[in-house]
Specification:
Layout (H helix, E strand, L loop, with lengths): L3 H11 L6 H12 L6 H10 L6 H13 L3 E5 L6 E5 L7 E5 L5 E4 L2 H13 L10 E4 L7
Parallel strand pairs: 3-5
Antiparallel strand pairs: 1-2, 3-4
């Protein structure tokens, strides 16, 4: 399996774009997130490590990473900021969103993956990806 940087470098090359040091820093930082993140969080993280990268470069690079299928855009309901979730060419994973704390918990489930594949095949398609979210509240939380 190719590294995310290799996949991204090849993607950019196919579009006659350069793999700059700024884009490399963005990919390296994105890979370190173990949960969905916002563009502003990424920008803060880059600046914390003294990378001088403009907000415009971050947003453009995020779009390229989505197009390269290394990131999934994730939306967690009305009025919520959009998030990005690093795929890295790996398996899809899903999310449980705690409505009280806003905490986002990633999880994997082979049955959900299999069901998505079955539905796609039944409709004459090959599933490339899926998004599944559970919106919940802890069972021991007061209403």
């Amino acid at each position: 399996m190719q590294s995310a940087q290799s996949v991204f470098r090849n993607f950019l090359r196919s579009r006659r774009l350069k793999f700059t040091s700024e884009r490399q820093a963005i990919v390296q930082t994105v890979e370190k997130f173990s949960r969905p993140f916002e563009a502003e969080e990424l920008l803060l993280q880059l600046r914390q490590f003294n990378h001088r990268i403009s907000k415009a470069t971050v947003y453009r690079t995020l779009k390229h990473l989505v197009d390269a299928r290394l990131l999934n855009p994730v939306f967690f309901g009305a009025g919520r900021q959009s998030y990005y979730d690093f795929r890295g060419g790996g398996r899809d994973h899903d999310h449980l969103v705690d409505v009280e704390t806003g905490m986002i918990l990633p999880f994997e489930n082979a049955q959900i993956d299999a069901l998505c594949d079955q539905i796609a095949v039944r409709l004459g398609y090959h599933a490339l990806s899926h998004r599944f979210q559970i919106i919940g509240r802890r069972t021991n939380s007061p209403r």
